[in-house]
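Lab meeting minutes (informal)
Scribe: AK
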Amino acid sequence: MEIFMNGNKNIIILSEKIGLYHVLTKCFAPKYRICRYGHDEWGRKSRELPVLQKDTILFVIETENETLDTLHQIKKIRLGAFAGLILVVSDAEDRERQIREKVSFIHAGADEYLAYPQTQEEILVSIEALVRRCEKKGFFSVKVGGSSISIIPQKREVLLEGKTIAFTKLEFKILKYLILHLNQVVPHKELYEAVWGKEYLKDDENIMAHIHRIRKKMGDDLGKPKYIQNIYGIGYLMEGE
């Protein structure tokens, strides 16, 4: 495994080749951490996926006539509630195989498919465009109560263990605010004024009603919630990483 340790976000390359790793390190470090795993090594490391993907914006998978393995990798990444982008770079030269792979990989959850004989410069331009898309998405993921929760603010979208949950505008704002203040007790007054944008008039029942609906939609145990905890007389807390 090669890893350029710097920056705040990861770009992970799954490939047996070293060339693309060097190109991306030169172009994107130190703003991003560039990590490369061989396919066999990734199979052993994939149990660490929830930790790795928390700070990952892009997976680049170089496939060498291993369509089924690549499909498995894409599905496993998406099942881990990864909210970033996935690019597949294939060595396929046959047009029929390229079409077959592109359809299969996109359906499985990839966002972009490139096939040789594109030059490294062309591949790099595509990766730069995907990185810009990732930055605009502004997604973030956390682990709370043993479950992965991903937030995509621009889409007002929440993924719980990879499954989309529909929230109202206020419910989304409450959940987002609590996640942005992970491991901090958020007082009722602070939460109300941040979400409703009004002066706090001890309207705790209104907050409680929304929290109750959020818990219900997330399938939480209403008697002993694991996602949003009550801090009696003070406010709410989400604990995670």
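Next up, CB showed the second protein from the same session:
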Amino acid sequence: MMQEPLLPKIVKIKPEENIYEGVARLFDEIPISKDSIGVISGKEKGTTYNIAQDLCKNISAYKLEGPFPVEAATSEEGSRIAQIIQRKKYDLVLSVGGGTVEDTTKYAVQLASKPEKRVYFVHFATAVSHDGLISPRCSIKNKGYISLDVAPPIGLIIPYKIIQEAPYASITAAIGDVLGKFTAVKDWKYQELESFKEEIAFPLFLNSAKSMLKLIDEMEDKKIPAGATTSFYKERIVPEVVEACIKCGEGMIKNKSTLGASGSEHDLSHATDRLAPKPGRHGHQVALWTAFVMRLYDELADPIEDIRWETFLKKLEYMQMPVNSLQLGIESTIMVKVPEEALRLRKEERGRHNGVLERYVEKGFLLDSVTTAKILSEMKIV
């Protein structure tokens, strides 16, 4: 019988609880050497750097060293942090921040680990803006963005008070990333890959996406305004978004891949990253391209069962998420080129399929910039 992959230990610290004690509690549960722990943070003197510095000063039960700031999620920064880890001979590091810090730490830990000495890391989330909190993947910029297989964290710390105070857009980006599972799962069902463990991954991904829709429906029914100022935001939205992101990560770990978590909507977002001088938030891009993918499935007479693209865009709008290229901050002339770029990129990567994009073209439809402009215009995205 195949052994289930180990999931990270998770400590959720309520707003009224002591953060330092919560961090120490998780360290207590990790059965590896903790003589000294390297702390990785965001830019020097920035918010996450200050939080990391505060943790170093106030957790007396363990020797925390740093923080060592990260400027960006690049291969160069990852290599620099890996050298620090090796020079200091850390067995365990603590990443403090959002996606940029965590992705860089994942990459650095992978580089610093050797067959005879593996390095582990724990992530202290200061914001939740994507579904990769515990995923076995990282996105690193190296002449464009690349997505790599890496080891997930062995521990995750969720300090709710800090996450509640993060920008509202970070939470809506996480919602967008999770909502993308509607099309991601359908893409991979279409591919019928033997390696896909449907009984494990599909429910985790789809139920997470459905939980986000249910949350938005409840807000609409009760006329609760979007934004970070309501008690509903702190008591319901933040915890439920965190839980949905964790469940998506569990699915990726159990499935040992991102199949079903990342489909055409993610391909389109990554292509946007390549083309746009200043891309939008990952989750916001994913959400907008999810609506586009839903529209393509409609044209193939194989619609998404749970929600139609028109309603989907209205849900995004209610949550004050971008519903057009202007709000996303990307020129319409770039948006119309994205599907062609996504197809081109995936042809370069063997073993990865485009799901609906390839299927759409195989059926004789065009996805050139002219056709894309027509579709996006009809959807009022451009």
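CB comment: The mean pLDDT is 92.
No objections, moving on.
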